Amino acid sequence: MKRLRWQILLILITFIAITALLVLQPPTTQVIVSQPSKGGSYSEALIGQISRLNPLLDWNNETDRSIDRLLYSALFRVDERGIPQPDLAESWGVSPEGNLYNVTLRANARWHDGTPITSDDVLFTIDLIRNGFSLFPKDVQELWQKVEVRKLDDHNLKFVLPEPFAPFLDYLSFGILPRHLLGTIPPDQLANADFNLHPIGSGPFAFDRFIIENDTIQGVVLKAFEGYYQSKPYLEEISFRTYPDGRAALQAFRNGTVMGIASIPPDILDEALAEPGLALYSTRLPQVTLVLLNLNNPEVPFFQNAAVRQALLLAINREYLIQKALKGQGILADSPILPGSWAYYDGIEPIPYQPEEAEAILRKEGYLLPSGETVRAKEGQRLAFTLLYPDDAIHTEIARLLVADWQRVGIAVTPQAVTLEKLMAEHLTPRAYQAALIDINFSRTPDPDPYPFWHQSEATGGQNYSQWDNRSASEYLEQARVTTDMGLRQRLYRNFQIIFQRELPALLLYYPVYTYGVSRQVQNVQIPPLYAPEDRFAFLLTWSMNTRRVLIETTPTTIP
User: According to the UniProt entry, where is the signal peptide (predicted)?
Assistant: First the structure.
């Protein structure tokens, strides 16, 4: 009997404990949410024509590059900060000296025909670049002629550099080609190979068919690749159609032919904004527009004076210029390194529009307005120069605005339009100019390395067109090129940017903005800072057009 009482007591205690736990446990709520699901077809308008769908031959064709970004894989892709991340590579390592790189390929990576991707494909592609069978710039070819590539096994490679080169991983971001399909084709016939119109890649989408109208290629259809080695895309199909200009592309959207427009130029921006079904996404392009000053031209000795250069920039109403010439499609530039990059230093104080301060500086430097004159002069040297600019509509308008701003502070500028080819070949390359309005495009490599444009050694024969000769700045650039310590590189580039802002070897105007239009039917669209226009597809795997309803349980948060 006594034993029975203990059993009853134990049961009672257990019941009370369970009841207390149930009372104390927060209530749960069942909620139905929408989640992306597989399916749907997205179509996009591209400006230009499809030529050859081959990542070694698409350098000069933005249309081909957009398509190739989805067809092909690279060893590395850069993220939104410009930092290389493994793609076909599964892992990598670098020696303490910085001149040896080991790369391991993903074992589950396959070509669209099911063939495994191996080290032989990487070696084959690099050999084509090294031997001049690509359209990459010559310096890329020369770099690969200096790098030894060793096959360790089917999935491991060693890269031996002659010296440390911090941006090296960026040079592994080219699309890899299949050796088993192209290895028997003579390299000099690669440009005309049938493969370029029936490509086999390893990207998230595979070639399906061309859209043919009037016996010409008007577009292409891609299908999601089920054997893709990373997360599978939600979209099952992507098609691209080509158009001659932005206005024709916008009309195609209105007609329902396409759901997206690859690029919204300023001249149709207002019309695009008025389309209720079109969502616009903007981000900065990998480009800066600036005025180069020839610091070593005896015809314009005043350019050698940093105070005069500062006055020139203070006199420019850059915000008005962006609104007037670009319809707001630009961001004020304050550094030769792109904002959003891991190397960009946001502690730089932007130089504002202060024409009165510009005039005060010029007076202090001895550039005065003689009685009855409108142009400042010092010891008989008039503050006057010629500004060269590309002869397109946007640069023409920018040049007009610059001339007017400088005229207001007593600087006479003669604008001279030339073709871009002539500007490069006959003026910038031989350094036969006084000032030039140009764009510098950084899309060839996302690494922020400004060495080619501002190092002393590039002043003769290189791309340092201003001929800026600053030893301290050059030393920072040299050190940043050889260390793989990103923290140290960041500090070195910060110091370089501080010197650049103080010296102003060129007048930075703005970073152009890229505007992308996508139908509001497409969900989860994100556009990162671009290092090339095709980077708009960086998050494409998360885009969706279909959703499914899912029941989930949530616990309400109790607020004391």
Answer: none
Token pair belonging to 345: 């230093």
Q: What is the pLDDT of residues 452-474, one digit of tens each?
A: 999 999 999 899 999 999 999 99
Does any domain span residue 82? no
Residue 243, pLDDT > 50, answer: yes
Torsion of CA 537, 539, 541, 546, to 10 degrees: -100
Count the domains in the chain.
Answer: 1
**Mean pLDDT computed over every residue of the chain:** 93
Inside any domain, residue 17 = no
**381-382 and 377-378: which strand pairing?**
antiparallel
Q: Which tokens in the block code for residue 493?
A: 């580039």
Q: Tokens 């871009």 appear where?
A: 420
pLDDT exceeds 60 at position 23? no
- pLDDT of 2 reads 47
What pLDDT is attached to residue 547?
Answer: 76
Tell me the C-alpha distance between 76 and 85, whole Å: 5
Query: 560 pLDDT exceeds 80?
Result: no
Closest CA to 347 of 504, 503, 491, 510: 491
- Contact criterion met (CB below 8 Å) for 71 and 206: yes
Residue 46 β-bridge partners: 242
Q: Which helix (H) or strand (E) holds 281?
A: strand 278-284
Range of the domain at 378: 287-513
Range list of β-strands (E), 67-225: 76-78, 84-86, 89-94, 100-105, 148-153, 156-160, 205-213, 216-224
- Please check whether residue 94 lies inside any domain of the structure: no
Residue written as tokens 């080991």? 102
Is residue 344 in a domain? yes
SS3 category, 52: coil
